[in-house]
Amino acid sequence: MSNQLEFRHLRYFLAVAEELHFRKAAERLYISQPGLSRQIKQMEDDLGIKLFERHNRKVVLTETGKYLKDEFARNLKQLDDVINHAKLLHDGKTGQIKLGYVGSAIQKIIPELLINYRKEHPDVVFSLKEMDNQKQIEELLDFNIDIGFVRLEEVPKTIEKISIKSDTFCLVLPKKHPISISNFKNVSQLKEEAFILFDPEYSKSYYDNVMQIFHDSGFTPFVSHLTIHASSIYKLVENNFGISIVPKSLASHKIKGVKFIELDGISQRTNLSLVWNKANRNPLLNKVLDLVFKIAHE
After folding, report:
1. Tell me: the pLDDT tens digits for 259-295?
2. pTM, full prediction
3. Distance separating alpha carbons of residues 12 and 25, to the nearest angstrom
4. Is 101 within 8 Å of 272 (Cβ atoms)?
């Protein structure tokens, strides 16, 4: 990179690359359009490459420009994380860990992680956000979160995945449903029921696994509702809109209006996995991973 190329040039380039419009990019950057055009032209001259194809009413990234857009965005995000970490150190904090998770992970793994880690490291800031499986992978790839808890079988090569808990499934029925633990024999007893399931977008592999339960039971279910939130499932079941199947880790006697029957006699299991980006350079990451592994195997 030329010595004349500065950090601000990268942000100017990314603004134009994202907007594909010099006026809009200039407004976003609070600089003049002619000034922005000169800066981009200077950047191209310094690098000796063409970043944009300019037409009367259109700006298009060249193949080189497309490559640099992705690389600059990724590396500037990492640089922002480094600067934010430095600010935390300045404020007397050791650093920050950002977690993504599916709802079932919040029942045991995450609370124990937070309690145990904060005992020894009270100066670490944790940021938690519930999101679906695929969103977590996207956020990991963009370095927006440090670790995730997902129910996925396949992940990109740049993402590390380790199974930390294998769950059985549970039926979720209204409290007054005639089927109970005492008279339940198999899932086929419920073939006339409407089912409320996690949306395939939550996890295609998880959904296929649940559908295999029905296949092995000799019927195709009528799926009346799809959702990505366990709380929605419970509320719908409580109000007799259908019944459901969820991982055992989501079952709790504290949930009003529903009852659970564990399906421990079937072969299907669902794995909760820990995932992280191999390129993540957060200095706290390895210590947190070690603690998660310890909790998961206690």
Report:
1. 999 999 999 999 889 999 999 888 888 888 888 888 7
2. 0.65
3. 8
4. no
Dist. CA 219–CA 238, nearest whole Å: 24
Beta carbons of 266 and 155 less than 8 angstroms apart: no
Give the pair of three-digit tokens for residue 147.
Answer: 């670790």
pLDDT band at 94; cut points 50, 70, 90: low
Measured between alpha carbons, how far is 298 from 217 in angstroms, rounded to an integer?
A: 34
Pairing of strands 270-277, 159-167: antiparallel
Domains and their CATH numbers in the chain: 7-86 (1.10.10.10), 93-165+272-296 (3.40.190.10), 169-268 (3.40.190.10)
3-state secondary structure of 99: strand
CA atoms within 13 A on the CB side of 177: 27
Work out the end-to-end distance of the chain between its first and last CA atoms, rounded to an integer number of angstroms.
51
- In the predicted structure, residue 85 carries a pLDDT above the cut 80: no
Query: DSSP labels for 223-289?
Result: EEEEES-HHHHHHHHHTTS-EEEEEGGG--TTSTTEEEEE-TTSS--EEEEEEEETT---TTHHHHH
Q: How many Cα atoms sit within 13 Å of 50 on the Cβ side?
A: 8
Instruction: Place 84 in a pLDDT band, splitting at 50, 70 and 90.
Output: confident
